[in-house]
Design goal:
Elements (H helix, E strand, L loop, with lengths): L13 H11 L12 E5 L3 E5 L8 E6 L3 E4 L1 E9 L2 E8 L2 E4 L3 E3 L17 E6 L4 E6 L2 E7 L12 E4 L2 E9 L11 E10 L6 E4 L17 E3 L1 H10 L5 E5 L1
Parallel strand pairs: 9-17, 15-16
Antiparallel strand pairs: 1-4, 1-8, 2-3, 5-6, 6-7, 9-10, 10-11, 12-17, 13-14, 14-15
Length: 244
């Protein structure tokens, strides 16, 4: 996350956001919980621990390629720098997130009940770690992303893109609630959707195969080709719906 968007900037888009919300929620329906995150083991074998810590007792072993269903993401031991995310597989069963990979989505995740809209808009499913670009009710692009880790969750609700910066510098000093210290230069294709600095952007520091795991400080990170695609497609005022 970066420095805050100037106060009052988002207010200029309030009317558009309200119109979108009225259309978006115009149909009856109850939002249903997403299906659990599905993936596979990415290394030769991994230990399943009784707690999200490498020193916790081992309660099982998973081999490369075995399917993994994640019931929740939790904060645990930071084994890799800036990644304290562990996957909870069941009661007393945890694996470190860097050792698993998300299955490629075969299409957009189902939308919460009753959602309709017109024009361009973005759906972000933080359970599935998938972003879908829509034009009306037609999905036009699906990508795997990485949203906020458990202690810094991505805000959920209805938003709009407030401003866009081709290349940003992200510094932890501008977000005092973040305990980690970091400075990231050349964060390309940054599109802010909150006045506190949450954004869609390239996450160049992540391995290509590590997207699909919530590891950010609240932003929505993506690989280069996806960040560029979204930059060329979206614009200031494009609505976002972020949900479980």
């Amino acid at each position: 996350m970066n420095s805050a968007v100037p106060r009052g900037f988002g207010a200029t888009l309030l009317a558009a956001a309200l119109v979108f919300a009225a259309t978006f929620l115009s149909q009856p329906g109850v939002a249903e919980a997403s299906e659990p995150w599905q993936g596979t083991v990415a290394t030769d074998s991994i230990n399943v621990r009784s707690a999200p810590n490498s020193s916790a007792p081992r309660v099982g072993v998973l081999e490369r390629g075995q399917p993994v269903t994640v019931l929740a993401w939790v904060t645990g031991e930071e084994i890799e720098t800036q990644n304290s995310t562990w996957a909870q597989l069941g009661e007393g069963r945890y694996v470190y997130s860097a050792l698993i990979r998300k299955n490629d989505p075969k299409g957009p995740p189902p939308l919460p009940g009753g959602i309709q809209s017109s024009g361009k808009w973005i759906d972000v499913n933080v359970t599935q770690q998938v972003l879908t670009a829509y034009e009306g009710d037609k999905p036009v692009h699906v990508m795997v992303i990485s949203s906020g880790r458990p202690e810094y969750p991505t805000p959920q609700g209805l938003f709009t893109i407030l401003r866009r910066v081709p290349s940003a510098t992200m510094d932890s000093s501008s977000v005092p609630w973040v305990r980690d210290s970091y400075r990231l230069d050349n964060v390309l294709y940054t599109q802010y959707f909150t006045e506190l600095g949450a954004a869609l952007h390239l996450a160049w520091w992540k391995r290509e195969d590590s997207f699909g795991i919530p590891t950010s400080h609240g932003c929505i990170g993506m690989p280069l080709k996806e960040a560029l695609w979204l930059w060329n497609w979206a614009e200031v005022g494009t609505p976002l719906h972020i949900h479980p």
